[in-house]
Amino acid sequence: MSKESLSVLATTLLSLVAAFFVSAVIILILGENPVEVFKVFIVASLFSWDGVGFTLFYMTPLLLTGLSVSMAFKGGLFNIGAEGQLYMGSMAVAIFAGSGINLPFYLMIPICILLAFLAGGIWGVIPGYLKVKFGSHEVINTIMLNLIAYGICNYLVVGPFKRQGDQILETEFIAQSARVFRLNKIIPWISESVPVNFALLLTISLCVGYWYFFHKMRYGYEMQVSGHSSEVARYAGINSGRYIILSMFIAGGLAGLVAVHEVMGFRYTFHDNFSRGVGFMGIAVALLGRNNPLGIFMAAFLFGMMNRGSLFIDINFDKLSNDLVIVVQGVIILFAAMSGMFQKLVRSK
Amino acid sequence: MSELRDYALKMNNINKKFGDSLANNQVSLCVEKGKIHAIVGENGAGKSTLVKILYGYHKADSGDIYINGNKVAINNSEQAIGYGIGMVHQHFMLIEAMTILDNIVLGNPLLKLGMVIDYKSVRSKINALAKEYNFTFQLDDKVDALGVGSKQRLEIFKTIYRKTDILILDEPTSVLTKVEIKDLFKIIGILKKQGKSVIIITHKLGEVMEIADNVTVMRDAKVVANREIKNTSIAELAGLMVGREIIASRKEEVIAGDDVLVVENLTYQPQKSKKLLDNINLRIAKGEIVGIAGVSGNGQPELEQVLTGMIKTGVKGKLRYRGVNISQKTTAELRSSGLAHIPSDRNKWAYINEWVNYQNSILGYHAKRKYNIASCWFNFPVIKKMAKSLLDKYKVTPPSINYSTKSLSGGNQQKLIVGRELDSNPDLIIIAEPTHGVDIGSVEFIHGKILSARKAGKAILLISSELSELRKLSDRSFVICEGKIVDEINWQKDDDQSIGIKMIGGANAIKRN
Ligand SMILES: Nc1ncnc2c1ncn2[C@@H]1O[C@H](COP(=O)(O)OP(=O)(O)O)[C@@H](O)[C@H]1O
Ligand SMILES: [Mg+2]
């Protein structure tokens, strides 16, 4: 491993340790034993096959949105819009596959995946295009598009596409042929009730693809040049506008693929307001993972562990509620954002 | 001990390692009270490291520092300031949106948190001090309105205000115009009269001879000589710096061939602006170097960008490259058809900060067939081998393909870029300010490489604000002023002064002012 990546790793670990230390103090103040609390987290998420399965289940969408944010970042943009992009991707798949259309699975599933990517991608490309064409800032535009996506999806799931004869705000169930398999089909130790599914495998292969794109391919090189500096890109004959648009399209597409996990693999329908901020947590995951696919994987796994563990916090501790996880995650984000400080510490050694 | 007292500062056997590389090796420095002490050396010789140790930025691995004969430990800049040491950085530490007064007062780290500033007494104190040192300020002006020279003066004044006895200036003149340099030297003269010591780091030996009392020459992290200015010469110092006598390279006769680039009636006018290039006509033939001289800010960066395809909108006129009209060609297309470009601003354009040498060594040529498999996958073995031979051939130190380009000294960065561009086997090379902020040894090296490109039959446009560079390298040269080519230089007849007059728009322009 190079010196640079070692120092990045050390920095990230240091910010994690610091975050857990602060969280421990908070738990102490609330009157519980932090060692016990962390033990519950770890036992719940790692010490059984189902625990691992659920951790991976919670991890999958975070990994996708983490990759999404990181992809945009490589192109020089800050994508706050993963939330809107994942809603658009999921809604598109839910409408298409829930429309009563019937195709064999070997057509249906690729089409749905493509649709999810496209719908999210279009939602991502809009702010990219606006930036290139008019120079308007992508942060504002992605936030705005989040609100528009909420509005659209909310309208659709309450109105025209609501499943009839049910109180729940959901769309029609998608066709059988559009459903992807659960992992217990190939890993029999995971029980059938654990919804971790094919989307995990797809996402992991995307992590590898992401690494491959930036380390091996000319286009990845060009995208990084344009992301680092549009002036250098201009000098080197690289069309940075094209890469801004491309990176936002892929970023949006990656977020849109949450549809595979949620709609095609888990609920088989678009459940109103299902995400609850997965798109925003992607920012934290990308930040903590330092835009490196392995780092993003580990960050997403850690957050997945905490989501899994949170269920058991309520049960096991009188004085704590599962909101504790939000606090711990918040502290981690804070320290990850401050990691420039740790970097200095590591470097000066 | 008693002899130590004659020195305002003595640094003794300073050692400093960065990783495996020694930046200071048993370096000693004695600065007399009330004297101006120059430190010269090639880029990467360790000058900045030495003064940063003095100013508490870096901690020396070993060695001692004595101020007025007393041994001191300096662990951070506040302590350094406490010992009366001041430093002006190349990048100014000013808050642009604030007034000069606020910058003087607030920049003061001796100010404790929570202290209330008594502006009235501060103002009168500053005014008195400014008078004493012959500074003129409008204390209530915003800093962002100041020019580079004034900002630097303000920085120097800030250190005076903090009661500096030893002032460190790290390459203060590289950002200044000739007139501003004169002003700076006046200020340094006043500081000297007031009994302060000044340490000045510079590349320019002419300046050293003009202003310094003593000089220390560094090479390869060591001190190689200490001289009194009255007992030395530019030639001796230059020789000491690079470790060999500099041989002024003589240009060989090359018979110019066919025209490679023909520029006709080129005009560039961005929206809502005046013409930045005005009716330029030029031809560059195989095997010749055509020079463009001018005071900076007269259209040179625009000319450079228009010819390399970096600017497209607002351009009128004909551009023919090897007989083909190229006005619609993109930079990428031009590069792949044999254009190379050594840009005027290497930090802005020529490399990616976060990347290492091998990644930067293909920038602009990354799409070449030999670097790619099936035109989209990089062929790393080929790229890395090419990068390594580039670093060796162009004497980049350290010659490591995994070394961060940003951490190279200016001269070494430039050699990497020059190498990348010249080794791409171009037909036409646009070169701008190839030796800006580059040490003497690298200047010689780069000039030699440009001349051998000429000999190999390349057509070269050389835009430079250094007349000596154009005099040495170019076959024909023109003066650009306010976007127009105003005259051709006759190197036999014209002296620097008459060229200078042409550069600022002729004798009439002088009268007008
Ligand atoms: N912070 C640093 N980390 C690693 N290497 C450094 C650092 N600062 C300087 N160096 C290296 O130390 C050597 C001396 O650098 P420097 O003192 O800046 O030279 P100079 O000012 O004479 O050009 C160079 O090889 C440079 O690359
Ligand atoms: Mg230096």
Key descriptive features of the protein:
heterodimer, A: 349 residues, mainly alpha, 15 helices, B: 513 residues, alpha/beta, six-stranded mixed beta sheet, 22 strands, binds adenosine-5'-diphosphate, binds magnesium ion
Helical content of chain B (DSSP H or I, runs of 4+): 25-40%
Q: Judging from the principal axes of the Cα atoms, what is the shape of chain B?
A: globular
Give the overall shape of chain A, derived from the CA principal axes: globular
Counting helices, strands and paired strands, the structural category of chain A is: mainly alpha
Output the radius of gyration of chain A: 21 Å
- Count all strands of chain B and give the number: 22
Q: Most extensive chain contact?
A: A-B, 19 and 30 residues
Low-confidence stretches of chain A: none
Strand order of the largest sheet of chain B: 6-7-8-3-9-10
Helix/strand class of chain B? alpha/beta
Report what the structure shows:
The complex is a heterodimer of chains A (349) and B (513). Chain A has 349 residues and is mostly helical. Chain A contains 15 helices and no strands. Chain A starts with a helix and ends with a helix. In chain A, 52% of the residues are buried. The model of chain A has no long low-confidence stretch (mean pLDDT 91). Helices cover 33% and strands 25% of the residues of chain B. Chain B has a 6-stranded mixed sheet with strand order 6-7-8-3-9-10, with helices on both faces. Chain B has a 6-stranded mixed sheet with strand order 16-19-20-13-21-22, sandwiched between helices. A 4-stranded antiparallel sheet of chain B has the order 2-1-4-5, with helices on one face. The termini of chain B are far apart. Chain B has 513 residues and is of the alpha/beta class. In chain B, a hairpin with a 2-residue loop joins strand 14 and strand 15. Classes of the chains: A mainly alpha (349), B alpha/beta (513). At the A-B interface, helix 8 and helix 9 of A face helix 10, helix 11 and strand 18 of B. Adenosine-5'-diphosphate binds next to strand 2 and helix 1 of chain B.
